[in-house]
Amino acid sequence: MKEVMRWLRSFRYAYEGLKYALATQRNMKFHFFVSFVTLISALFFHITKVEILFIILAIVLVIMTELINTAIEKTVDLAMPNQHPIAKIAKDLAAASVLVAAAFAVAVGAIVFFEPINRWFRQGKSYTINITAESVWLYLALVIVTVVVMETRFSHSQRLRPSLWMAIAFSLATLITMLTSNTLVALLAYSLAFLFLVMLYEKKNRPLSVSLFGALIGTAITILAFYLNR
User: Fold this and answer.
1) Which residues cross the membrane (predicted)?
2) What is the DSSP track for 108-149?
């Protein structure tokens, strides 16, 4: 019985560590969000069991390396409160492990989801899309005006203020997606917009919800304006 209680206590400590990392580490929040979207996409596209296994492996690997990275950072900060070259090397090496795991996860996602997305994209493209240069500026103007109005309306709440840059980036990615019949080009466009999201999230001290809200607004307004203009 004591062994069982000790095991349950160890499990609780491990769970507390996971909760701490999720509550305090910005990168961990981002990893969990991407993992959630990836799993929902896996359900939507009905991928095979082997592909699901690789997706879960990639998710676990990224989260595990992020936990180890956090543990190493806290240990180094405790052992060396002042800046030291060796402390920097230890932190850089720990961060590199997360980078390698994330690169593996991106590769797995690209390989697993490309064909399902390609089939879904070609099935949905059953009509001719005609977007002129004038309509592009109109769509972007609508996105900008919407974001400015929302930022003014919700100026008291930072989390409800969408990012203008993210709205424009995802609006352009959506326009490229609607213009092209090439799934790879569309995925590359959204990949660039997503990299821009990551860059803003890392450089600016704003909640992740702000960037995601901006991306959602930019995409939704562009699609809505397109269907109204058909």
Assistant:
1) 30-47, 53-72, 93-114, 126-150, 162-179, 185-201, 208-228
2) HHHHHHHHHHHHHHHHH--S-----HHHHHHHHHHHHHHHHH
R_g over Cα of the chain: 21
Known binding-site positions: 6, 13, 66, 73, 91-92
Residue 14 to residues 62, 93, 94, 164, 210, Cα–Cα distance (Å): 17, 23, 20, 39, 31
Binding residue positions for a divalent metal cation? 73
Query: Given 65, 93, 124, which residue is the final one in a domain?
Result: 124
Tens of pLDDT, residues 141-154: 888 888 888 877 76
pLDDT digits (tens, 9 = 90+) for 146-201: 888 887 776 666 666 788 888 999 999 998 888 886 788 888 898 899 888 878 77
* Residue 3 Rama label (left phi>0; alpha psi -120 to 50; beta): alpha
| Domain total of the chain | 2
Q: Please give the model's pTM, rounded to 2 decimal places.
A: 0.70
Q: Is residue 66 among the annotated active site residues?
A: yes
Task: Indicate the annotated binding residues for substrate.
Answer: 6, 66
- Candidate list 16, 66, 134, 151, residue with the active-site label: 66
